[in-house]
């Protein structure tokens, strides 16, 4: 739906510009090049978010461009969308110019769903901002307040804020379609991200459009340079997160290599836990911490003299489960992983505190989810060892978890597991 709307807007914009001609072609070319360069230096943020800060800021600035060096502009809504689309298409040229052999080993940009999502968002966001601002500007309604006065700046800020909200909503729709994350949780994640790179993009686009009224096209490199430096900082933060992920993966593999857990157990538990977390409406950040904790939930087993058969801690006495969880938490606390992950692992074996009304008690939701996911994999592994068929084994495991529903396990979590794994 979002891609279709973007394609329709692009086709309509190109058609209108082809009929009417290009207004201020030099200005249009400068913004097209800026957007294309911004697309070529995209960054990937945590949660698999793709952003092109400079390209997005350039598109927003052109959509909100009023006077240029004191002279009015008249490019309008469709040319703003056409320039953004031309910049997006121009950024594809390096991939098209690659030798055929090199192209085979790299995914084509037009087949990359993350990149297509980002391009569609930026095109629709620029079109949305232009649709609000340009008609008011070209009709003279904005002339009632001075272009160099505070009211004009407040008006542009309001339009930029609405464009940012539009982009967040589109990103939430696309994330819902790609990952299955519930729309309210996806929207909450995207709105949180507005306080990071999103606010920097909106502020830069706003400043460029305002400064262009005084200094002309020199505003483009002058105000986009700080955003480029901010991109470097975001890249470094992403690299730190990648290092954290490698540390977690190593710890998760340690129990398997040492023979304490079956191969793939940590990954299966993490996948099940994340599926349940999405079903319960957790956001991207909560899901990331949940995955970390699920991958490392068995680290405490390394303290055992003798491995538990099949690593099935769910079959151990409650006190022994709690001891292993506490030891694992102490190990995790010394690895530089977010403290919340260690706290979740420490509470994995704590009894569920929910009362008759369904209150959650003090045990973190992530800990309750991992406990159910771990029991699910342990019991399923035990069923396979007994030679039980896959379908029958799954039914047995779900029935066993239902028996502990509301006593040993959180009823809400068990119900969510049944929906995603039943």
From TrEMBL:
PROSITE patterns: HD_GYP. Its EC number is 3.1.4.-. It is an enzyme of class 3 (hydrolase). The chain crosses the membrane at residues 77-98, 119-137, 149-174, 194-212, 218-234. Keywords: Hydrolase, Membrane, Transmembrane, Transmembrane helix. Residues 240-422 form the HD-GYP domain. One of its GO terms (molecular function) is hydrolase activity. This is HD-GYP domain-containing protein. It comes from Kitasatospora aburaviensis.
């Amino acid at each position: 739906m979002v891609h279709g709307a973007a394609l329709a807007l692009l086709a309509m914009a190109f058609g209108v510009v082809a009929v009417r001609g290009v207004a201020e072609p030099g200005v249009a070319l400068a913004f097209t090049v800026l957007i294309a360069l911004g697309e070529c230096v995209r960054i990937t943020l945590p949660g698999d978010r793709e952003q092109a800060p400079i390209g997005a800021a350039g598109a927003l600035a052109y959509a909100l461009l009023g006077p240029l060096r004191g002279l009015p502009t008249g490019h309008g809504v469709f040319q703003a969308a056409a320039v953004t689309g031309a910049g997006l298409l121009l950024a594809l040229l390096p991939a098209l110019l690659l030798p055929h052999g090199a192209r085979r080993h790299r995914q084509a940009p037009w087949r990359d769903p993350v990149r297509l999502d980002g391009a569609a968002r930026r095109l629709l966001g620029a079109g949305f901002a232009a649709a609000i601002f340009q008609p008011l500007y070209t009709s003279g309604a904005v002339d009632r307040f001075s272009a160099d006065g505070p009211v004009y700046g407040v008006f542009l800020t309001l339009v930029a804020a609405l464009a940012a909200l539009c982009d967040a909503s589109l990103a939430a729709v696309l994330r819902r379609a790609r990952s299955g994350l519930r729309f309210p949780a996806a929207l909450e994640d995207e709105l949180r991200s507005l306080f990071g790179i999103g606010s920097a993009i909106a502020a830069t686009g706003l400043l460029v459009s305002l400064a262009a009224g005084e200094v002309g096209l020199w505003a483009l490199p002058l105000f986009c340079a700080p955003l480029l430096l901010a991109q470097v900082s975001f890249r470094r933060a992403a690299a730190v997160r990648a290092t954290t992920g490698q540390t977690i993966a190593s710890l998760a593999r340690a129990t398997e290599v040492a023979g304490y857990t079956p191969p793939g157990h940590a990954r299966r538990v993490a996948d099940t836990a994340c599926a349940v977390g999405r079903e319960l409406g957790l956001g991207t950040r909560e899901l990331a911490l949940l995955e970390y904790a699920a991958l490392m939930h068995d680290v405490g087993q390394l303290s055992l003299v003798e491995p538990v058969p099949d690593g099935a801690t769910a079959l151990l006495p409650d006190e022994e489960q709690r001891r292993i969880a506490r030891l694992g938490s102490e190990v995790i606390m010394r690895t530089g992983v977010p403290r919340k992950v260690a706290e979740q692992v420490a509470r994995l074996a704590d009894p569920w505190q929910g009362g008759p009304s369904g209150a959650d008690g003090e045990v973190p939701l992530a800990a309750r989810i991992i406990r159910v996911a771990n029991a699910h994999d342990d019991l399923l592994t035990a069923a396979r060892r007994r030679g039980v068929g896959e379908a029958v084994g799954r039914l047995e495991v779900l029935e066993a978890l239902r028996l502990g529903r509301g006593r040993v396990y959180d009823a809400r979590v068990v119900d969510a597991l049944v929906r995603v794994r039943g």
